[in-house]
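Supplementary Note 2. Why include the ligand at all?

Several targets in our set were suspected to adopt different conformations when bound, so apo predictions alone were not considered sufficient. For every target with a known small-molecule partner we therefore ran a joint prediction. The input for thymidine-5'-diphosphate is given below.
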Amino acid sequence: MNKVFLNLGRQPLANSFLKDIKEKTLRNEFFYNLKICFNTKNYLVSIKRPVNPKKQYTDKYAHRASESKTMRLAFKDVAKKLFKRFRPKRIMEIGSNDGVFLKNFNKKSVIAVEPCKNLARITKKLFKTYDEFWNLRLSNKLLKEKKSEIDLIFSANTISHIPNLEETFKGISKILSKNGVLVIEDPSLLKVLKNNSYDQFYDEHVYVFSSLSMKNIVKKFGLRLFDIEHLSTHGGSNRYYVCKEDGKYKSSSRLKKALKDEISHKLHKIESYFKFSKRVNLSRKKLFNLMKRLKKKKKKIISYGATYKSTTVFNYCKINSKIIDYVTDTTFNKQGKFTPGSHIKIISPKIGINKTVDFAFLGAWNFKKEIFIKEKNFLKKGGRFITHVPKVTILSK
Ligand code: TYD
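The joint prediction is reproduced in token form.
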């Protein structure tokens, strides 16, 4: 029942920043074909052939959730809110990264699951951490070891990364207490379609969920979606609240509204995805042509934020170091490296944002507000941003 509607071409792993661009390094660079499909039965949007997670979530995983102040505050807020609403005794996070969410709770009541060993090493010092992939086997192991179920399972930007949904939800269903709650945060499909933000598709985002698909998926595993919140993180995300089928929570009016909204935007129809695909194709042509035109006029173009999202954009639109002089990024770990597939040098914004720059492509468009405040001098001196979200445009304010 899976129908391919979008082909984003040959892509590298979104976070596989290269140490150098010597011939040998480039020869070993891993690529795969990024095709996106729609399931006409449960309305799930996914990558047709996901990459093996063992290639992605290694002991060199670069993303540290605590590095962004916005994310630190957001996780602190949600931790407080969830504790107040559900009063959980035992809490588990799937994909705990560097502990940015869990450290807001009593350390004795939490369990962290994080397969990237470099990250798990950080939280092992703070609380019980399992440096393993989440699956049914681990769920059984935890039940055996701890002899008690979990009242709150939290997972932000992780469930969408796990190819095997069957294992994921079977494991969750097994360990969740009678009135326990599963809270999932992931990018919103409706927002992707509205923003034309096709760059939400990269190897790690195996799925982009909607409330329609989430409702159908969890149902298969004896679970029930009962509430939803819309968030601004990652350019528009949803926070899904799930309980056991016979859990005490009533379906919220927010959820009914969200489901209705998605139906009115025809998220359950394949035609909407074919239309989206056409818009994406047009966006590619427009972005490439705009940059070519500016280059012909001898303008200097850079990119702002070495995001995973921009890996998709650069490789799909065939944008490389002939067009973009360099990418700036505040993350030390990325500075001095090269972007995956497009091989553009990444440098610090302290050096890279200066008066020689005419245009900066907004790789981190989800932080546009923050960036425009930070870079008001760049704008004042005539610098311009280029974005592709929701349309290819030059921005001066
Ligand atoms: P993120 O939002 O996590 O996007 P993705 O999931 O697509 O990688 O990454 C934002 C990146 O942008 C991160 O590497 C930090 C960088 N950044 C800057 O360089 N300057 C800024 O002002 C902001 C807000 C982000």
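The two ends are 45 Å apart (CA to CA). The longest helix spans residues 270-296. Comparable summaries for the other entries are listed in the accompanying table.
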